[in-house]
């Protein structure tokens, strides 16, 4: 299983009871998010652009590693990983 | 003073949506919000067909969406799917600018104008969206550019008696009209002057920086237009435009309103054309014509002076009432209400975030 931790405001937007989801292990970050979209419909379009890339003001961490350094959405996952989606340090 | 009437004002700002409701005679209004505080709300409107509030919510983190509330703003859904161009499209949908529910004859139909300029339609009340792709396929799309506010399709108007006739305005691009439900589009910019082009090219068929258009509900062939330079009137559904700017302190501005019952009456809010984009001379005023733009007079009683602020294209609305209530939101976060067709103004909210849009109607 993989623990996916979402920003609290996104969980509220999607009316999820909790901002943490327990999901079956997926081989990559992208596939994990696609399976999360089935549990939380709409999640994918808020996280990703039309071309599938993560939106520019979001970050994903797999454990302690920034996913950008591990292949982006192709970053490999292992059973027991913890994945965090974070709002970037930006805004105004 | 206007008689008692229940009015709701939806104020979209850079940081969420505020809702004001009347407590008796205007200008008495109570303020609630912010709703959707994490989003820039470029437009919000109550769909008169079923009472749903539709909000163009643009999150810096989660992108653009059309969110819906069926309980007056207390709760919001996540909006529908499909508000995106294809994955291989060179353009992206980065913001929703304007939402236009269709007329009663087309239940469920809603249009959304987006950035980069394009038009989407939903036939199921906003559950699913699809692009009206014929618009961006028009040969003149190649000359559309980004204006100061972005490359945005900011105005959508559905003809009140003919749901197949749709007017849009985008910047830069100009006015386009479809008379066949969005199958085909025709640019209607004849007579508009593009000050930002070299002298011999100042009347192009497309590529115009139109800031707003407004249609008179009683006589829909009568439209008014605030251009990047110049205020214009059309008496033939936008096929030709006549410059009616003479008498205004500046021919630059963003919003324009057409009186819904008096075709010769319209309102504009001139601002300096230079980058300040504030009331000319620091004197807050709305300008009104009652003769189709042949002459204009200022309506300033209750508006601020000195005031180094402006009014954006979506931030000026009427409530359709008799007398007509007018609602004006400034870039400095003040909302002014006129209960008497513009003769007097009252500040009913201040210190809101930058106001992007205002809509008003029966509560």
Describe the protein:
The complex is a heterodimer of chains A (92) and B (363). Chain A has 92 residues and is α+β, with helices and mostly antiparallel strands. Chain A has a single domain, classed as Ubiquitin-like (UB roll), CATH 3.10.20. Chain A is 24% helix and 23% strand. In chain A, β3 and β4 form a beta hairpin. The model of chain A has no long low-confidence stretch (mean pLDDT 95). Chain B has one domain: Methylamine Dehydrogenase, Chain H (7 Propeller), CATH 2.130.10.10. Chain B is 1% helix and 39% strand. Chain B contains 1 helix and 27 strands. In chain B, the strands form 7 sheets. Chain B has a 4-stranded antiparallel sheet with strand order 3-2-1-27, with no helix packed on it. The interface between A and B is medium-sized, with 23 and 20 residues.
> Biggest interface and which pair forms it?
A-B, 23 and 20 residues
The average pLDDT score of chain B comes to: 96
Rounded to the nearest angstrom, the distance between the terminal CA atoms of chain A is 37 Å
Give, in order, the helices and strands of chain A. Answer: EHEHHEEE
Assembly state = heterodimer
Largest sheet of chain A: 5 strands, mixed
Into how many domains do the coordinates of chain B divide? 1
Beta-strand residue fraction of chain A? 15-25%
User: Outline of chain A, from the CA principal axes?
Assistant: globular
* Radius of gyration from the alpha-carbon trace of chain A, in angstroms: 12 Å
Mean of residue pLDDT of chain A? 95
Structural class by helix and strand composition of chain B: mainly beta
- Output the number of helix runs of chain A: 3
The neighbouring-strand order within the major sheet of chain B is 3-2-1-27
Shape of chain B: globular
For the record, what is the CATH homologous superfamily label of chain A? Beta-grasp domain
- The largest sheet of chain A has its strands arranged as 2-1-5-3-4
């Amino acid at each position: 299983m993989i623990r996916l931790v979402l920003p609290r405001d996104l969980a509220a937007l999607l009316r999820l009871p909790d901002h943490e989801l327990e999901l079956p292990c997926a081989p990559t970050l992208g596939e994990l998010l696609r399976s999360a979209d089935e549990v939380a419909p709409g999640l994918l379009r808020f996280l990703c652009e039309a071309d599938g890339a993560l939106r520019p003001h979001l970050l994903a961490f797999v454990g302690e590693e920034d996913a950008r350094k591990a292949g982006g959405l192709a970053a490999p996952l292992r059973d027991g990983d913890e994945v965090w989606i974070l709002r970037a340090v930006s805004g105004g | 003073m206007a008689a008692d009437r229940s009015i709701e004002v939806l104020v979209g700002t850079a940081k969420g949506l505020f809702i004001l409701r009347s407590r008796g005679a205007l200008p008495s209004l109570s303020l609630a919000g912010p709703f959707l505080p994490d989003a820039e709300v470029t437009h919000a409107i109550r769909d008169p067909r079923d009472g749903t509030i539709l909000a163009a919510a643009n999150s810096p983190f989660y992108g653009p969406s059309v969110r819906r509330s069926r309980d007056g703003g207390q709760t919001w859904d996540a909006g529908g799917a499909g508000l995106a161009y294809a994955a291989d499209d060179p353009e992206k949908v980065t913001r929703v600018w304007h939402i236009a529910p269709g007329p009663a004859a087309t239940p469920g139909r809603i249009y959304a104008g987006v950035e980069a300029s394009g038009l989407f339609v939903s036939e199921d009340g906003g559950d699913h969206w699809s692009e009206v792709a014929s618009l961006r396929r028009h040969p003149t799309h190649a000359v559309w550019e980004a204006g100061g506010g972005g490359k945005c399709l900011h105005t959508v108007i559905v003809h009140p008696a003919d749901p197949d006739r749709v007017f849009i305005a985008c910047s830069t691009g100009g006015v386009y009209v479809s008379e066949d439900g969005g199958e085909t589009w025709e640019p209607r910019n004849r007579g508009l002057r593009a000050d930002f082009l070299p002298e011999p090219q100042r009347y192009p068929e497309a590529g115009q920086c139109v800031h707003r258009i407004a249609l008179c509900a009683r006589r829909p062939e009568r439209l008014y237009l605030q251009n990047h330079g110049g205020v214009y009137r059309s008496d033939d559904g936008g096929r030709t435009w006549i410059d009616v700017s003479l008498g205004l302190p500046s021919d630059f501005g963003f919003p324009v309103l057409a009186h819904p019952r008096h075709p010769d009456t319209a309102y504009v809010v001139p601002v300096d054309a230079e980058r300040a984009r504030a009331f000319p001379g620091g004197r807050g005023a709305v300008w009104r014509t009652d003769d189709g733009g042949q002459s204009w007079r200022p309506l300033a009683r209750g508006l601020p002076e000195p005031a180094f602020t402006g009014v954006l294209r979506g931030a000026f609305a009427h409530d359709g009432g008799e007398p007509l209530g007018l609602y004006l939101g400034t870039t400095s976060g003040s909302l002014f209400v006129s209960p008497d067709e513009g003769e007097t103004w009252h500040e009913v909210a201040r210190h809101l975030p930058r106001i992007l849009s205002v809509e008003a109607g029966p509560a």
